[in-house]
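Reopening: structure tokens for the adenosine-5'-triphosphate complex, inputs below.
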Amino acid sequence: MSGIESRPVGVDALEEPTEPETVLRVVGLAKSFGEIRALGGVSLELRRGELCALIGPSGCGKTTLLRLIAGLERPDAGSIELQGALISGAGVDLAPQRRRIGMVFQDFALFPHLDVGANVAYGLGRRAGERRVEEMLALVGLAGAARRPVHELSGGQQQRVALARALAPSPELILLDEPFSNLDASLRQQMRDEVRAIILQAGVTALFVTHDQEEALSISDRVAVIRDGRIVQLGTPEEVYSRPTDRWAAEFLGEIEVLPGEAEGVWATCELGTVPVREPIDGDVGVMLRPEAIALDTKGPPDGRPSVVAEVVSRRYFGHDQLVEVELPSRVRVHCRCLGLPAWHPGDRVRVWLDGPAMVVPDGPTVTREPR
Ligand code: ATP
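Re-run output (same inputs, fresh job):
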């Protein structure tokens, strides 16, 4: 008998990771406004306690998806389940206030004539109690602010009140529509972290809409990339950033460089080296790289991997890092993102090599070579 077989009965069951519970299940959700198809069959599952970002360009259907889930709009097709119970579809259309879903709007939508406490209590309806209001205000860092008029509050404080109001009735899910877009840049950064911490502490599942890549990647557990009314990729921030589903998703989520390459089966070779290919392919390809996956130095890679000699063409300095444009021996130019120091200057001779994930796409790049 092997060691594994001789383990006591029950140990495997104890060690097996339990599947996180599905809180929201959206299947084949479709919605058109006249001739405009806003959503073309979206399916999405959210697990308990996760924070998921819905990101896509303007007009791709993000808000429509949120409004359908909230019950503010009726789908043409598809279904929505919350905690295993059907709330929309197959003849069911639960009213928004009966869905156990909280909503935070872009402009916070607070009642200006009510004080902070009354705004939070509004979400509780007849169940309103001073204790719950205080509990919620403490959760969002506004303990003791119940009697303050909302118009006296800063943007960040108003957002916390809106969050407290949405969380007060203990919803299963909260939906946030571009929650940070009305805040100025410095406050936005701080509020992202705060909102994430509050959502985690409340243990609620959250879906938020954004069109800001950095925002989606920095505070979410998973990111759903939406384009033309369809989710084209759903994954962790790391997955969607370093293994984008296609060239469009790669470009949407950050800067990319595409080098001409040639593929043979599971490998593709470009000027900077050979990279693995996800789906076997032969012939001309484009090798997509993030600028931070292209390293540069005077000495070359420490581990002896291949590198090429290049010349620095231009440089943009950002303090924490710099974007250095280099010309490769083929005269193709690429950008490398590296630490702010040392400072590189046009004309510097450097060595450049691959230092991060690459993705191979069938459609090769349109390469502009500098004339000699
Ligand atoms: P943005 O980032 O600009 O807010 P979005 O991704 O949230 O965009 P939606 O607001 O969901 O996009 O809109 C998707 C499409 O549906 C757009 O073409 C929009 O013009 C259209 N649309 C949305 N609501 C309506 C409506 N009530 N009547 C007509 N068309 C609508």
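Confidence is low (pLDDT under 50) at residues 1-11, 367-372. Residues 33, 36, 38, 56, 58-64, 211 surround adenosine-5'-triphosphate (CB under 6 Å). Marking as resolved unless the reporter disagrees.
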